[in-house]
Amino acid sequence: MATVYEIIQGLSQAAANAYDGALGEDYEPVKTGVLRREEGNALIDQRVMDGFNVKFYGDMMALTYQSEIQLKEVYAAGFESEIDQRLTDIAGWLKKEYRKVTGNSVKLTEHGEIDVVVQNSSRVRSWVQAKKVFKVGGLTEEMNNAENSRAPLERSWETFLNQGGWKGKRPKNDTRKK
Fold first, then answer.
1. Residues paired with residue 126 on neighbouring β-strands, in sequence order
2. Which of these, 24, 43, 88, 104, is most buried using a 10 Å CB contact count?
3. Is residue 124 part of a domain?
4. What is the Cα–Cα distance from 96 to 92, expressed in whole angstroms?
């Protein structure tokens, strides 16, 4: 059984292996097969900027995806389901890459609905930001406990707060107005 640290480190490393321009073990560009920037010829086609990121919240992993997009794609039928499928494909790629990195498998189950936001800065430039939450197998609900996630205060801050913080008793040599 892998530890929490090993699971999170493995998933983070799997996600980090997909950065734009990454080279694999054979010194060939890493292809996820799900990102739009990998489609077409990089020399003559317009580059599409897209990528994904992972964040961890207790036993959950939030997978975020961002990409440049044209408004005609947004107004096309099935846009949200297309983005949902892209995030599901990215999660599948993360599982495969996790297996390559650690030698173990990980279970990612969808939790909740996808959140898609489309924004534009002009009539030409638009982008999409999507977020989907997955429950990570091997991590437990007990990790959400706020008591275990609090770091102890440094001694100097603890004494400062015990003396009243900013509104505490002022020293004798403090000559400022009250």
1. 69, 120
2. 88
3. yes
4. 6
Domain contains 163: no
The answer as to whether 177 is a domain residue is: no
Structural domain that includes position 98? 4-152
Instruction: Say if strands 115-120 and 60-69 run parallel, antiparallel, or are unpaired.
Output: unpaired
What DSSP element (H or E) covers 102?
Answer: helix 79-102
Secondary-structure breakdown of the chain: helix, strand, coil percentages, each rounded to the nearest 5: 35, 20, 40
- 78: Cβ contacts below 8 Å, ≥ 6 apart: none
Structure token digits, residue 54: 């992972």
Q: pLDDT for 59-89, tens place per residue?
A: 889 999 998 888 888 888 999 999 999 899 9
118-125 contacts, C-beta under 8 A, 24 or more apart:
118/69, 118/74, 120/71, 125/68
Number of domains in the chain: 1
| 56: phi then psi, degrees, rounded to nearest 5 | -115, 135
Query: In this structure, which amino acid lies at residue 87?
Result: L
Please tell me the pTM assigned to this model. 0.70
Average pLDDT of each block of 10 consecutive residues along the chain (178 residues)?
Answer: 80 80 64 65 63 87 89 88 90 89 89 92 86 85 58 79 75 81
Residue 158 located in a structural domain? no
Q: Report how far Cα 20 is from the mean position of its chain's Cα atoms.
A: 16
Angle at 135 between CA 142 and CA 113, to 5 degrees: 125
